[in-house]
Amino acid sequence: MDIKSIVLSEPVGEKIEVKGWVRTFRSNRFIALNDGSTSKNLQVVVDFDQMDEALLKRVTTGACIAVSGSVAESLGAGQKVELIADKLEILGDANPEEYPLQPKKHSLEFLREIAHLRPRTQTFGAVFRVRHAMQFAIHKYFNDNGFFQVHTPIVTGSDAEGAGEMFRVSTLDPINLPKTDDGEVNWKEDFFGKETNLTVSGQLEGELFAMGLGKIYTFGPTFRAENSNTTRHLAEFWMIEPEVAFNDLFDNMTLAEDCLKFTINYALEHCAEDLELLAKRQDDEEKSLPQDKRTMPLLEKLQFVANNEFVRCSYTEAIEILKNSKPNKKKKFNYIIEEWGADLQSEHERYLVEKHFGKPVILYDYPAKIKAFYMRLNDDGKTVRAMDILFPGIGEIVGGSQREERYDVLKKKIEEFDIEEESMWWYLDTRKFGTCVHSGFGLGFERLISFVTGMNNIRDVIPFPRTPKNAEF
Ligand code: 4AD
Ligand code: MG
After folding, report:
1. Which end of the chain lies in a sparser environment, N or C, as judged by fewer CB atoms within 10 Å?
2. Helix, coil or strand: residue 45
3. For a substitution probing ligand 1, which of 150, 447, 459, 460 has the most ligand atoms within 8 Å of its CB?
4. Do residues 366 and 230 both lie within one domain?
């Protein structure tokens, strides 16, 4: 039986077998056993006199064991039932001289170095059970709302975001590159006969499907070779990208807000035990901080976001707010906002969300210059129908837009952005044949998990983080 079922059904009197990893073994009598099915440990009681001493010596933290015995009501505090062991078998030893995890508090930095073992800790067990539930909630949300999932390619020839932050995919020998007559690398000889890279977004291909299936979403790995060593950036992350025919920017905002609230509520409902544990972790972590530096308690924060309407604020309004803000006037921001057109840094985003509005904020109608080529130009000729959703503690969690559906305008934009038009023929075709208003957004899955679990560093919510100079495991 797995431990989750035992805790749920409390099968007192039954004979069962469990397998799992030893968390602690105290007083030569009580083993706290965990098998990952739940954050809860099963208390296994061994009778020292009945068991082989050499065998019990091998019951150390991290060892994998199988125990059979009968379930009994527990007299001790902390658990309703326990397992009285008749038979204990060591499946795999964990030499305490070498095993790096001990029943004490380890720093998250240390655990990142042993990311192959951290799934065995209470915190990471909770994080990754929540992550699983959240991805299920995303699929449930879109499926229940009539969306179709599309598997967009991971290897592509395009740069969807036009930011040039791509990982090249090539089978050419770097020491012996084939050259053209004028000395350039001859990509025609590469595997795909052209330059290819790992995708930075499935959006462009997603749009093609929205123009046939109506409502689609993608949920896949995404790669960005940006040299950002922050707590919110990964070089490999997972993104959810819905795309909807006939939706305008405001429908898009409504969809994104509804989707976020649904998935957060799903976690509150289905991951209560793990979230409580993570909430307690956050409390412990912040205990030493002064009151004004502490974040809202985790569960309160999640309920707050799930139950309050997000603020909608145009970029132009936001610039006014920021210009007149205290940190701007007192030159406390690293980037002082001087005029309309400035790109917003995370310090500005966080000011708006955490200080000014105190709620998630949807910023929209950004200057065309600081956004991607595919966003629909407004009638003012200088802003585009873009929207970013900003969350407390996270900053940007969603980026989306209404797409430029007018052939001529899009073609001109492609020229202005210096994008190779020939490589975009298929994208432009959708505007030539049966074009329509449509919108979509990208939700960064790890940023969502970071928010829901209260784990401040994005490296702690993906199994094996890829960041600059780091691709271990
Ligand atoms: O704002 P971004 O770059 O938008 C797009 O890629 C669009 N194609 C989406 C669309 O309209 N279909 O990225 C979307 C989201 C961000 O808001 C952020 O949550 C996440 O993806 N994100 C990252 N997460 C982790 N590490 C990174 N390096 C990220 N870059 C973006
Ligand atoms: Mg963005």
Report:
1. C
2. strand
3. 447
4. yes
User: Is 398 close to ligand 1, i.e. is its CB under 6 Å away?
Assistant: yes
What confidence tier does 48 reach under pLDDT thresholds 50, 70, 90? confident
pLDDT grade, residue 211 (50/70/90)? very high
Residue 160 in this model has a pLDDT that exceeds 90: no
Domain shared by 341 and 376, yes or no? yes
Q: What's the CA gap between 127 and 140, in Å, rounded?
A: 20
Query: Can you give the pLDDT at residue 295?
Result: 86
Atom of ligand 1 nearest to the CA of 242: 12
Residues 324 and 353 in one domain: yes
Give the separation between CA 416 and CA 145, rounded to whole angstroms: 37
Which run of H or of E encompasses 88? strand 81-92
52-93 pLDDT, tens digit per residue, is: 899 999 999 999 999 999 999 998 888 999 999 999 999 999
Q: Is 203 in the pocket of ligand 1 (CB under 6 A)?
A: yes
Residue 28's domain comprises: 3-104
Q: Is residue 125 within 8 Å of 34, Cβ to Cβ?
A: yes
Q: What is the DSSP letter of 183?
A: S
Q: Which atom of ligand 1 is nearest to the CA of 243?
A: 12
Q: Mean pLDDT throughout 15-31?
A: 96
Proximal ligand: closest to the CA of 235: 1
From CA 439, how far away is CA 252, in angstroms rounded?
A: 6
In a domain, 195, yes or no: no
Please report the atom of ligand 1 found closest to the CA of residue 401.
11
* Cα 356 to Cα 350: distance, rounded to the nearest angstrom: 9
Residue 163 vs residue 462, higher pLDDT: 462
- The alpha carbon of 174 is separated from its chain's Cα centroid by a whole number of angstroms, namely 34
Phi, psi (5° rounding) for residue 457? -105, 125
- Asked whether 158 lines ligand 1 (CB < 6 A), one says no
How far is residue 384 from each of residues 110, 366, 372, 430, 463, measured CA to CA in Å? 44, 6, 9, 20, 36
Tens digit of each residue's pLDDT (9 = 90 or more) over 422-439:
889 999 999 999 999 999
Given this model, what pLDDT does residue 159 score?
82
Residues 91 and 158 in one domain: no
- 174 assigned to some structural domain: no
